[in-house]
Amino acid sequence: MTEVSADLGTGRASVGAVLDFAWAAGEFTATEVMAGTSLTRSTAIDAMDTLLDAEVLRELPNARAVGSYRSGRPARRFSLSPDLGVVVGIDAGDTHLAVTVADPLETSLVHHRIEVDPTHSAEERRATIIESLRAALAEAGVTREQVLALCVGVAAPVDRNGISPPHPDGFWERTNPGLADALRDWAPVVEIKNDAQLAAIAEGAVGAAIGCRDYVALLASERFGGGVVVDGHVLHGAHGGVGEGVVFDHIIGVGSAFGLSYAVRNHAQAAVDAGEIDRDSAVGRLVAAERIDPRLVLTLAASGDEDAMLITDRVGGTVARVVGVLGSMYDPARVIVCGAVAESVEPVLAAARRVLPGELHLPAPEILASQLGAEVVSVGAVATARRAAREQAVPRLAEQRLRMRA
Known about the structure:
This protein has 13 helices and 13 strands. The protein is an alpha/beta fold.
């Protein structure tokens, strides 16, 4: 239940219960609040009046006013205020940056996505993130004072304070360039998260893991990284490193944390160099032109191109080993392959499913392609920001407004 200070008048439990109910209820009456919270009528009405005074709830025109009322005393109708503020989700990937401004409930107001230079310094990257954040808020017509919660996904382990550990090559420090400090004053609640963990949150909220308590969201486009959910809980670790892909550097048959895009390019080049694929074929011409678009190769495989199918079979073997490691470590019911590559990855997954049972002793997890595409981390970031707004920022806002009125 949302925690609300006793300063809100009717007590933490009743006001928190009504506020929790209101988030999912849309328009509602006091009778519906009573049924949904087990509060008495007087307690429910007192709590709603407290939230009305705090301008967290608004009272709607009653049934008579809108023409749908027939007889008797019309019930009072309420909803969350549309003026609570906004939330922001940011996907700060290695080669892209996406900023989403959304309302606290369900509607995205602005979504910006740009490509970024992976060679930029930490200072340049931080400046680009802040500049893009300012631009998105401006386009949405809101100020930073209206931001309730902000969540950023980065391609690095992140501890509970939003700090990434040092990386031997400085990669994690660059992908998370001090964002916890840089963004601290941009919202009442600011969270910096690992991108794969946000992908797992997205899949559990609106994706292929709805109703599943044990799964891994495998970000697989450029680098492998897993967001791990066991018994309904997203696993984190002391430094946020659960699911970190460096383990695959040491797995025979994988050999690298680089993801499916790299694997497709590598296998295509190797097959052409070995003479297994003719240089005048569709795949051969891609290799010769040094334009090996992994998604195009996957599309060719889906259409039955034998050369492309050779590549996807080999990449499928790699995926089976990756999933086998995850299956042995975490025993998931599902592994969901996420990222932009997921839109065309089915030929690879079909090959992986054939190989997977031999890769582990436990029952093989189901392998699925995400339906959330390249925006999966953004979806998870927004979902996380909305939860923070619901559980922390809005109760604080209500308390502040009532104190100002006192």
